[in-house]
Amino acid sequence: MRPLILLSNDDGYSAPGLLAVRDELARHAEVVVCAPAVNQSATSHSLSLHRVLRLLEAAPGVFAVDGTPADCIYVALHAGTRVLPRRPDLVVSGMNHGLNLGSDIFYSGTVAAAREGAMRGIPSIALSADAGASREAAAALGVKLALALHRAAGQAARRPAPLLNVNIPAGSSWPVRATRIGARLYTEEVIFRQDPRGHEYLWIGGAGVRHDLVPGSDTEAYDEGAVSVTPLTLDLFAAQHEGIASGIALELNDGRTP
Q: In whole angstroms, what is the distance from residue 110 CA to residue 69 CA?
């Protein structure tokens, strides 16, 4: 039996990057797409709990949800056989039109879709590519990495499930590096303007971006023209700050340990 791969993204079910990855994956596996109906970039890991959702089968094996990337993975995994014939062997998210480096992972819907899969115990990978990357070459490499993850995770039977974030720079041929999270820093702005009726509106976030030097990081790899493969964790516990939390608890308990 060929592996079953659940494919999603945050750019929408008809995005060229997703279609390129789907075509490449279909050579090696059974692929089911469940992706947002419209662009949901930077929606992070939000779930739509306060409005109804609609599921559309746009084509055989291609489903669109009018919600977030995390909604799409949740729906696909918990809708019985409406979307998936069985539990998938791998979740692939992307290929995103643009990068998800450094702190982008906290805002990225692409990464969130993969993270939702990993939270459910399924090996997952998020793929993102620079606008200057060859779409065909990037999709081919992304699929090679996804299939390598499937083989590695299956052999090791790891728990929790592995979660990888991949970024592909401009070009059509690249070395591949295992990396850590780097420092990608944006210009921070709030821009106030007026609409034609004189009402104020605003935009957040500036256009400028820079990378601080972090040896071995995804940002360093990108700056040097290499593909970054960054393992992410689902455990956000910060051991280095455990003492702060313990001290606050003791203070509020008048020095007593409950």
A: 7
236 secondary structure, DSSP code: -
Q: How many residues does the chain have?
A: 258
- For residues 192-222, one letter each, b for 16 or more C-beta atoms within 10 angstroms of the residue's C-beta and e for the rest, the string is eeeeeeeeeeeeeeeeeeebeebeebbbbbb
Cβ–Cβ < 8 Å for 164, 233: no
The strands making up 90-97's β-sheet, listed across from edge to edge, are: 55-59, 62-65, 30-36, 4-8, 90-97, 124-129, 163-168, 227-232, 176-178
| 16 token code pair | 């060229």
Average pLDDT, the chain: 95
pLDDT tens digits, 8-66: 999 999 999 999 999 999 999 999 999 999 999 999 999 999 999 999 999 999 999 99
How far is residue 169's CA from residue 5's CA, in Å, rounded to a whole number? 25
Residue 166: strand pairing partners: 127, 229
Indicate the pairing of strand 183-186 with strand 209-212. Answer: antiparallel
Tokens of 91: 């979740």
- Measured between alpha carbons, how far is 247 from 177 in angstroms, rounded to an integer? 40
Torsion of CA 93, 99, 102, 108, to 10 degrees: -50
Q: What is the pTM of this model?
A: 0.94
Instruction: Fill in the amino acid letter for 16.
Output: P
The whole-number pLDDT of residue 151 equals: 94
DSSP type of residue 212 = E
